[in-house]
Amino acid sequence: MTLRKNEIVNIAVEHLNRSGEAVAFKENSKIIVNGLLPGETADVKIVKPGKNVNFAKVFEITKASEKRTSSVCRNNSCGACELLCVKYDHQLEIKSSFISEIFGSHVAVEPSEQTHYRNKIILPVIRIEGKLHIGTYRRNSHEVTDWLNDCPVIPETMNRIIAKTKELLKLNDPDGKTAQLFIRGDSEGFQAGLIISSVDDDIIQALKDLSESDLNITSTFYSIGSGTNSVLVKDPVFVTGTEFAVLKTDNGIYKVSPQSFFQANIFTLNKILKKIREVIGSYTEPEVLDLYSGCGVLSDISGIKRTCIELNPASFMYSEKNDASQFIIADIPEAVSRIISGRYNIIIADPPRKGMDSKTLEAIDNSYADIFIYLSCEPDTQKRDIGYLKNYMVSEITGYDMFPNTVQIESLVILKRK
Fold first, then answer.
1. How many CB atoms lie within 10 A of CB 371?
2. Rounded to an integer, what distance in angstroms lies between the CA atom of residue 327 and that of residue 307?
């Protein structure tokens, strides 16, 4: 069956793909559409017909699933939270099915707080016909959805900071120098930054005014952007307050540079930290090697000796130096000899989404470590990497809901030497 652009057809959704999109078939034509659940029927409008797959948008839901719920977000065209219309217990079921399929056995996903959980956000800032927009990119596009209402997944104070920044940029940035707004923090205070094309007195004044707006802002900065959509902060110049945000976990309190990585959901991070403490605490005289360590939060446990290796020097900028902790700035494959020569009995790794390289995996496999704790934001690459390890066996797999209302899954695998 050949479908035409703007044609309206009725479909019955069969399943969701890993991107959270509904998949349906009309005779032999595959249709992909956002915002529907398995078992639902709907009239959809074809927006992009194709030979093998057609993309559509919802025109009208004709039969709703009992697992659907009213969205708590009023920024209807945002689309960043693919599962926001799904009851939370079913969100966990969906994610459990995704990760279970990857690993070939049932994997439960630990729940999180569903709203106000993010401690960091970077939003595009753009002017369209003179009107300032701050929001998120629409799904599969470079168009920015202007947030006219509060976002439910960030703290209320962050929403106030966004609104105040919009107000100040309307006055102080008429030429549209600002490309992105950075906010990080929680109850300990917030750090706010502007990623800009060039700096002037008005931009600096906007940051000063923001810091004085009674919004618990402890730090402001600007950074000259790269001209791309990159969310990495380069060479921040601090205008007011401290040069860091303060984030508190069950393992400790951390001063975090805007250039360094820190998990965005501390509620879920604390669940992961509890599991890691249990594993390490069961071991006599643990010596831990923490790879891709970021600020070293995962291995920051009182009374243990550890070595943290991380490529980004900003991660260790405010780390507390002591006899129990060694911090090494290095690319992991270049430092891989330390894995083999060091008498570490536990290795922790939290690599980027792309996973780990073969050289590092080989070194871990041939190390002295009895336990390998592997945390990943991409279970597919995690499963691939584990397949390279011949001397370890999987002891436990747990999924964590680091980003509720989205399809993203954090996966913790405990491996033990055979």
1. 21
2. 6
Strand duo 325-329 + 178-186: pairing: unpaired
232: amino acid identity, one letter: L
Rounded Cα distance between 90 and 243, Å, is 41
Q: Within 10 A of 337 (CB to CB), how many other CB atoms are there?
A: 9
Structural domains of the chain ordered from first start: 1-68 (2.40.50.140), 120-249 (2.40.50.1070), 265-417 (3.40.50.150)
pTM, to two decimals? 0.94
Query: Three-state DSSP class for 327?
Result: strand
Residue-wise pLDDT for 161-209, tens only, equals: 999 999 999 999 999 999 999 999 998 999 999 999 999 999 999 999 9
What is the phi/psi pair of residue 118, to 5°? -80, 135
Q: What is the pLDDT of residues 140-164, one digit of tens each?
A: 677 888 999 999 999 999 999 999 9
CB 101 within 8 A of CB 399: no
pLDDT above 70 coverage of the chain, percent: 99
The helix (run of H) or strand (run of E) holding residue 397 is strand 392-400
Instruction: Provide the b/e sequence for 228-239 (b: ≥16 CB within 10 Å).
Output: eeeeebeebebb
The answer for residues whose C-beta is within 8 angstroms of residue 203's C-beta and 6 or more apart is: 172, 173, 177, 178, 194, 196, 222
